[in-house]
Design brief:
Blueprint lengths: L11 H14 L15 H8 L3 E7 L3 H19 L2 E7 L2 H13 L10 E4 L2 H8 L22 H4 E2 L2 E2 L5 E7 L1 E5 L10 H10 L12 H15 L11 H18 L14 H9 L5 E4 L3 H8 L7 E4 L5 E9 L7 H11 L2 H8 L17 H8 L10 H5 L2 E2 L4 H16 L1
């Protein structure tokens, strides 16, 4: 989950109940059968011409808004005669609620939403409520650039994508340190546990109520489980009960060596950033590694800040775009999703002066010239190379796992 989608998990259960209610009461459309109306990509392009795509997406970053409205919107208009309307929202749930309301009202063919920037709990709500258009990946020429063998792409927070959404951006957890202060930062969870004991007071993590704090706790949970593979899929209470005590024991054993002896935890990742900036702690982490360079450029972090990924991996997830089942402009939405996967769109997005976002496509599947262009992109010295980071990506868990881990930490560690 990116910082732009972090509120999703707090509302997924409410939305899921609504989606289930509507799915039971209302007749289900054969959503994915519409895919058969297009025999090939040329037919999709022809049907998309002159269409309009209402893209509902988080609108809190000016650079992202500009990239979508000007670059993506301009290219779609010029190349395909598609009009892109970016609908800025504060929370992805607003778009999900719009589709839910339309389904309740029987609006099954002429919905107001054509595309949603989505992942995590909101995707689960829409998928389980039969609110998504699915089964069209093989129509998209640029789908060949996606590595669907990568479980952090094929599964959206532990839920199989099943051709119901298209990746367009990636986020992954990474650590930062001041190289002038810390010469050998710990590069695995076991090493971090040992390092914290040898450097008391120089490490801490936000409470589980903060998304970055929660994801750190999940890394410890993965370590206690011997890796994430046995945790993927639906929540398993028996597995949780077997693994959780080991994780709580590790975190409780660390408490005396944390900042302020673990008697309190930072409330947010912003608080941890301030502690790092003030040299109160020696390590920082974030789900958006680009922030390391941004904080250096803004004079918050020292110029000697450097970042790294754990050798045993760090959790990554993918942001997607999804087409609601009742979009009246599915062809235009598919063309938009396909263009978002293109080299042109992914390369533009990766430029540090545009967004600096990690690509959702597999760079190794590009041409040699295209790979070289990615390799030559300027990168802030404080920011880890995306290729190094992605090579150590670990998948996210199902929202039910995350909820149980967060609640368990509050009860067994925080108290």
């Amino acid at each position: 989950m990116s910082r732009y989608q972090s509120t999703e998990l707090t509302i997924w259960s409410r939305l899921f109940l609504l989606a289930t209610f509507f799915a039971v009461l209302l007749p289900l459309s054969a959503h994915s059968t519409e895919r058969a109306n297009y025999k090939n990509w040329d037919e999709v392009i022809a049907a998309a011409k002159g269409g309009t795509v209402n893209w509902f997406m988080w609108g809190g970053a000016d650079n992202i808004n500009q990239y979508v409205s000007e670059y993506i919107g301009g290219a779609l208009k010029q190349r395909y005669d598609i009009t892109l309307k970016r609908i800025g929202i504060n929370d992805t749930a607003e778009a999900v609620n719009a589709v839910l309301g339309e389904k309740q009202a029987g609006v099954n063919d002429d919905g107001s939403v054509d595309l949603i920037w989505i992942n995590g709990g909101n995707f689960r709500t829409m998928k389980q409520g039969n609110l998504l258009f699915c089964g069209y990946h093989d129509l998209l020429p640029n789908n060949q650039l996606v590595n669907w063998q990568d479980q952090s792409i094929a599964n959206d927070f532990g839920l199989a994508v099943d051709e119901c959404e298209v990746p367009w951006n990636r986020a992954q957890f990474a650590f930062a340190y001041d190289s002038a202060r810390t010469k050998n930062p710990p590069e695995s969870i076991p090493a971090l546990i040992e390092w914290a004991q040898k450097n008391p007071g120089e490490f801490t993590y936000p409470a589980a109520t903060d998304f970055n704090g929660s994801v750190f706790i999940r890394h410890v949970f993965y370590h206690a489980a011997g890796g994430p593979s046995s945790l993927l899929g639906d929540f398993d209470q028996q597995k949780f009960d077997a693994i959780a005590p080991k994780a709580w024991a590790i975190l409780n054993d660390m408490k005396p060596y944390l900042w302020r002896e673990g008697k309190t935890y930072p409330n947010s990742i912003a608080n941890l950033a301030q502690l790092f900036a003030n040299r109160e702690v020696a390590l920082y982490f974030d789900y958006d590694p680009a922030i390391f360079g941004i904080n250096v450029e803004n004079g918050i972090f020292p110029e000697t800040t450097r970042s790294f990924v754990l050798e045993d991996g760090t959790i990554g997830n993918t942001n997607y775009v999804a087409i609601p089942y009742n979009s009246p402009n599915k062809a235009a939405a598919m063309v938009t999703a396909n263009f978002l996967l293109s080299f042109d769109a992914q390369f533009e997005k990766a430029k540090t002066n545009v967004w600096g976002a990690a690509p959702a496509i597999d760079i190794d599947r590009l041409t040699e010239d295209q790979r070289n262009l990615f390799a030559k992109l300027p990168r802030h010295p404080s920011v880890i190379a995306p290729s190094v980071l992605s090579a150590k990506a670990l998948p996210e868990l199902h929202p039910d796992w995350i909820s149980a881990i967060e609640k368990g930490w509050q009860y067994n560690v925080a108290k």
